[in-house]
Amino acid sequence: MQGSNMLTSNSSGSPVFTLTGLPGLEDSQHWMFLLLGVLYTVSIVGNSLILFIVKEEQSLHQPMYYFLSLLSINDLGVSLSTLPSVLATFCFHTQEIAFDTCMAQMFFIHFFSFTESGILLAMSFDRYVAICNPLRYSTILTDARVAQMGLFIGFRSFCVDFPMPFLLKRLPFCKANILSHAYCLHPDLIRLPCGDITINNIFGLCIVICTFVPDSVLILLSYILILRSVLAIASQEERLKTLNTCVSHICAVLMFYGPMLGVSMVHRYGRYAPPYVYTLMSLVYLFVPPMLNPIIYSIKTKEICRRLIRLFFGTKL
C-alpha cells in the first residue's frame, strides 16, 4: 500500500499493521476470496453438523465422539478467528488492522493451534486404550475423565499462549509494519519490531518444546504400541478392521502436522521462494484441516454417515 496506508501507528500512538493477500498475485485475489469462501462454508457447516449429530445421536455419546466434538469446536474456532480479517482483506480491501485487534487474533489462532495438538494426542490415547486395553476402556475413559482432559488441554493452551501478546507489546515498532498474510501470526509479527527479540525467540522455542514436540512424540508412541497390539491378532481381517478405526485420526494428525512442518521448512529454508509460497502454505495449514476433518470423519464413521444420510435424504434411504 502507498502513502498514508504505510504509517506504522495511528493517532493514539499504537502500531497499525498492514494485511496482505497474495503477494505477486493481486489480480487473482477475487478468485482466492471465492476459494476461501468455499473452505469457510464447508468448515463451518461440516463441523456444526458433526456437533449436531453427536449431540442428537445417543449411540455416539462415547469418549471417541466427545473428543471428535472437541476437535470440531476447535476447528470452528480456527475458522472464525481468521474470518474477519480475511473477509476484510479479500472482499472489502480493508488492509489495516490495529495493534490490539491483531494481538487478539494472534492469541486465538495460536490458542486453537495448541489446543488441536492436545486434542489429537487425547484422541490417540483413546485409540490406544480401545485397541490395547479394550476391557478397561469404559473404566479408564469415563465422562468425567474426558471432561478433565479437555479442561487440561484448554488450560495448557491458554498458559503457553497468554504471554505472547504482552511480550510483543513491550517492543517498539518503528517501520512499515507489513504482514505476509491476511491475518496475524506470531512468526510473521516477530520479524517487525526494532528492539531486541531474543526473549521472544526463546519463548517461542520453549512453546514448541512444551507442546508440539511432546504431543507428536506421544502420538507416534501410541501408534507404535497400537501396531504392536494389532500385529498380535491372528486374523488378517480382524487386523484390518481394527486399524480401520484409526484411519480418520491418522488423517487428522497428518493434515495438522504436515502443513505445520511445511510452513516451518518454507519459512526457514525457502528464502528464495516467491512470497506467495509461504502465504499459500500458511493458508493450507489454517484452512485445510478444519475443512477436511468433518468430511473424513463423516465418510469413515458409519454412525455419522448414516445420520447424515437420514438428515439429508430421509429415513427411508
Automatic annotation (TrEMBL):
The record's annotation in SUPFAM superfamilies points to: Family A G protein-coupled receptor-like (SSF81321)
One of the entry's Gene Ontology molecular-function terms is:
olfactory receptor activity
- Any idea what this protein is called? Olfactory receptor
Topology versus the membrane = Multi-pass membrane protein
- Gene (UniProt): LOC114042331
- Top-level taxonomic group: Eukaryota
Gene3D superfamilies hit by this protein: Rhodopsin 7-helix transmembrane proteins
Gene Ontology BP annotations: cellular response to lipid
* Pfam families, A to Z: 7tm_4 (PF13853)
Subcellular location field: Cell membrane; Membrane
The signal peptide, as residue positions, is none
For this chain, the family text in UniProt reads: Belongs to the G-protein coupled receptor 1 family.
What GO cellular-component annotations does this UniProt entry give?
Answer: plasma membrane
Does the keyword Endoplasmic reticulum belong to this entry? no
Record's keyword annotation contains DNA damage: no
Specify the G-protein coupled receptors family 1 profile domain's residue ranges: 46-297
Identify the keywords attached in UniProt to this record, alphabetized. Answer: Cell membrane, G-protein coupled receptor, Membrane, Olfaction, Receptor, Sensory transduction, Transducer, Transmembrane, Transmembrane helix
- This protein's species is Vombatus ursinus (Common wombat)
- Membrane-spanning residues where? 31-54, 66-87, 107-125, 146-168, 202-226, 247-270, 276-297
